């Protein structure tokens, strides 16, 4: 009887040991397989980045900064799998990308697949002249953890690479890709120490009317135009001669997002002979400075949610001033009339360093900064989806500004001595990993 009991105990121990061993080895196998999967994931990521980078570098090597689909063995395609093998060194930039993926241990064969998407325009919100998206996938057989029923683990890695052309340090960027986008009419002059970029491909992208319209770029800066120039009656009025047929640098602040609204404050009206001081916040109404009125802004961010015909306006002989300020136009826009006095400068540090005015990309209301010689605006003036009428500065001040607008009309004499500085300005160029 006693021996029988002992035999039953031994049998139970054996069963428990067997069951426990399965779980133990399963957990050990799972840890081992996770480590192997992590290693293969890193290898796949390296292969994806190598393939995407090779596609863009090969396109640039055969084409330079002007990359055109279908020319110089540059391929633009929707997501397509690499062939199982490529002969020799390959012919197209896609061939070379597939060879780089294979050199890193991944090809379209068996449990592996390598795909490439390429094209021109933009990728992940960043303007590029050419991009490549590589995706690498692999099915990994499970070893020890197969005891738990996991026979195959699928992993995917991807990378996006683009070519960003050098901006050349311009301080005026006119973004519209088509049409007559920058105009000067009559007795107007632009003096700039940091250059101009006009991104339109139109033959008259930059159009000047009248004998006295002129552009003078100093300090080695240039006037760059993707399309052509309509000089008007006096072709000698651009110095140095503009460079046409350039590659568009795109929006130099494409990666900058607007802030979040705060608690709504009301609108503000400053009447004649009145001085008003206000602080940063979200103003759900128009801010109007009438002739003879003065508005002083404390440092900080001002979000303006004005009416469709309003926003921030300063009438002739009105005045506005503020150091270390950023004006965000969510709705409404800015309107400084001729004779308006402004002395505004952007923050020198912090999240909005260098940003003086920012009109949201969904806001297409036409902005006017035509204060003339009494208009001093140091900082970035960002109106990417809007037309901007501009006249500002004088030869006697040291205004540093960067203008970014969809279209630009110069309606008087303007002086910009240097570009403003901000970490948001696109100073990166060349082949860049964007994902």
- How large a portion of the residues is in β-strands, by DSSP E? 35-45%
- Biggest sheet statistics: 23 strands, parallel
Radius of gyration: 31 Å
Number of structurally distinct domains: 2
Uncertain stretches? none
Percentage of residues in helical conformation: 10-25%
* Individual helix count: 2
Mean pLDDT metric: 86
What is the number of strand segments? 32
Distance between the termini: 73 Å
Structural class: alpha/beta
Overall geometry: flat
Helix and strand arrangement:
Layout: H1 2-63, E1 77-81, H2 93-103, E2 112-123, E3 126-141, E4 152-164, E5 172-174, E6 182-185, E7 189-192, E8 196-198, E9 206-209, E10 214-217, E11 223-225, E12 229-230, E13 238-239, E14 243-244, E15 264-265, E16 268-270, E17 275-278, E18 281-283, E19 287-289, E20 294-297, E21 300-305, E22 311-314, E23 319-323, E24 325-331, E25 333-336, E26 341-345, E27 355-359, E28 367-372, E29 375-392, E30 401-410, E31 413-416, E32 430-433
Give a written overview of the molecule.
- Helix content is 17%, strand content 40%.
- The protein is flat.
- It has helices at 2-63, 93-103; strands spanning 77-81, 112-123, 126-141, 152-164, 172-174, 182-185, 189-192, 196-198, 206-209, 214-217, 223-225, 229-230, 238-239, 243-244, 264-265, 268-270, 275-278, 281-283, 287-289, 294-297, 300-305, 311-314, 319-323, 325-331, 333-336, 341-345, 355-359, 367-372, 375-392, 401-410, 413-416, 430-433.
- Helix 1 (2-63) packs antiparallel against helix 2 (93-103).
- The protein has two helices and 32 strands.
- It has two domains: 2-164, no CATH class; 172-426, no CATH class.
- It is an alpha/beta fold and 435 residues long.
- The chain starts with a helix and ends with a strand.
- A hairpin with a 2-residue loop joins strand 2 (112-123) and strand 3 (126-141).
């Amino acid at each position: 009887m006693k021996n029988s009991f002992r035999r039953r105990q031994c049998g139970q121990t054996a069963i428990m040991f067997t069951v426990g061993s399965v779980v133990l080895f399963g957990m050990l196998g799972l840890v081992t397989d996770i480590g192997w999967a992590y290693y293969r994931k890193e290898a796949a990521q390296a292969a994806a980045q190598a393939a995407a980078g090779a596609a863009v570098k090969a396109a640039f090597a055969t084409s330079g900064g002007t990359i055109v689909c279908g020319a110089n063995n540059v391929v633009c395609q929707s997501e397509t799998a690499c062939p199982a093998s490529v002969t020799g060194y390959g012919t197209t930039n896609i061939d070379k990308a597939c060879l780089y993926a294979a050199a890193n241990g991944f090809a379209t064969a068996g449990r592996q697949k390598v795909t490439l998407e390429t094209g021109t325009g933009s990728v992940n919100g960043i303007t590029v002249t050419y991009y490549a998206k590589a995706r690498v996938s692999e099915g990994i057989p499970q070893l020890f953890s197969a005891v738990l029923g996991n026979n195959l683990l699928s992993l995917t890695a991807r990378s996006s690479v683009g070519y960003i052309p050098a901006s050349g340090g311009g301080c005026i960027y006119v973004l519209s890709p088509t049409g007559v986008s920058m105009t000067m009419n009559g007795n107007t002059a632009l003096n700039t120490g940091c250059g101009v970029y006009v991104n339109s491909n139109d033959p008259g992208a930059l159009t000047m009317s009248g004998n006295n319209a002129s552009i003078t770029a100093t300090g080695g800066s240039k006037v760059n135009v993707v399309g052509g120039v309509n000089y008007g009656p006096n072709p000698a009025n651009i110095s140095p001669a503009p460079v046409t047929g350039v590659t568009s640098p795109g929006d130099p602040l494409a990666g900058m997002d607007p802030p979040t609204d705060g608690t709504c404050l009301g609108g503000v009206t400053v009447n004649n002979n009145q001085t008003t001081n206000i602080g940063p916040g979200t103003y759900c109404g128009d801010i109007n400075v009438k002739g003879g009125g003065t508005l002083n802004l404390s440092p900080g961010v001002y979000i303006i949610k004005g009416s469709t015909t309003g926003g921030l306006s300063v009438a002739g002989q009105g005045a506005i001033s503020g150091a270390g300020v950023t004006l965000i136009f969510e709705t409404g826009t800015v309107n400084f009339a001729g004779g308006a006095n402004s002395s505004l400068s952007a923050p020198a540090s912090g999240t909005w360093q260098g940003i003086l005015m920012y009109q949201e990309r969904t806001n297409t209301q036409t902005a006017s900064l035509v204060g003339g010689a009494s208009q001093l605006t140091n900082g970035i003036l960002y109106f990417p989806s809007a037309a901007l009428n501009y006249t500002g500065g004088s030869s006697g001040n040291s205004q540093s500004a960067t203008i970014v607008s969809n279209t630009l009309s110069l309606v008087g004499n303007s002086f910009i001595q240097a570009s403003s500085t901000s970490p948001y300005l696109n100073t990166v160029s060349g082949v860049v990993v964007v994902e």
